[in-house]
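B., you asked whether I could sanity-check this one before it goes into the benchmark set. Here's the sequence:
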Amino acid sequence: MLNLTEIFKKIKLPFFVNFEIYFDLGTSITKMAIKDKGVILREPTFLGYNSRVKDYSFTGTEAKTILGKTPEFIKVVRPIVNGVISDFDAEVFLLQKFLERSVYLYTRNKTIKPMMIGIATVPSIATEIEQKAVKEALLKIGMSQVFLVEKPLATAAGAGLNIFSHEPTLIVDLGGGLIELTVVGSGGILSQKTFKNAGDQMNKIIFNYVYLKYGIILGEATCENLKIEVLNFKNTEKIMVTRGKSLENGLPKSVKIKSSDINEALLSNFNLIVDGIKELIETSAPEVVDEVMKKGVILTGGLSRIPGIDNFFENELKIKVYCSDKHEYTTINGLVKLTANEETFSKILIA
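And here's what the prediction gave me:
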C-alpha cells in the first residue's frame, strides 16, 4: 500500500512541489541545502541554554560567539558530539531555528505549503539508534519523509568521484568531531577506520600545551583560532600574540605563540592519522591497494585547509595526496549530487 507521499508524487499538479532539503549535521558546523538552490545555511552547531527561563536563548553563530563569556545561568550546549546526536531536544530546537531562518524564506509565499523531504548524512559508524535519532529529529521539525546516507559516500561524490566505479578511492575526511578514513567503491564502503582525535580534540591538546609551556589558560575559541591561523606544514613560521589568564596571579598575560609550537603540540595527533591510513591500506585487498597507489588519497573536511597538509601526508605515506576543492561543502554538495539520479540514489540509502 502506497503511503501519502508516494501518492502525491504520482499526482502531477502544477501547484504541488516536493521540497528536498539536505542536511549535513556536523559536530562543529551544520549545513543545509535545497535542490536547485545550493547551500542556504552554514552555521555553528551551538546553542545557549538559559536556565532561568528554561529555554534556548541563542543559536548558531551567536551562541558560538558567547562561548566562555556567559553568566552562570547561561550554558553553551553542543547537541552533536563525535558526529552523532548527544542531546536530542537541543538538536531539534536548533534545526527548527535553522529551518525558520533559511528554508522558510523560500516557502512562505507559496499558496500551498510544500511537502518537505529531508535527506541527511550519518557517520558510517553510527548505530541504528543513532541513525534513528537523526531521522526522528528531522521528522519532528516537519519533514514528511527522511532518507539517510552514509557520510563517506556523500563526501566522495562531492569530491568529484564516481562512487559506483569499480576503482576504489581512499577518502580522508578531517572533520571537527570525527576523522573518517574510508575506501569507497562499487557504490559502497569497502573498508573504513574512524578516529575521535579530530578538530575539537585538537583544541583541547593546544589548551594543555600552552597551559604547560607558557603557564596561561586559554579559552576554547582562542585555541581554535590558533589552530586555524597559526598551524601549517609549509615551514612558514607564523606568530600570533595570544592573551590568556596567567597561572601565577590570575591576571591577563600575553605570549607569542608560533607555528612551531602548534605543530609540536599536534604532531603526534597527525601521526596517529597517518598510522591509521597505513593500517587501512595494509589490511585492504591487494587489488584495492593497487588502485589506491595509482589514484592517491583525497583529503577533505575543515582541517584539509591547513597549508601544506597534503605535502605532510604525501611525505609520510609515499602516496600522492590531493585536497578536495570547496572542502567545507564537499559532503553537502555530494549529497545534492547523489539525488540527481533516483535509480542510483535508491541503491545507497540506509534501509
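One thing to flag: Residues 156-197+271-326 form a domain with the Nucleotidyltransferase; domain 5 fold (CATH 3.30.420.40). Otherwise nothing jumped out at me.
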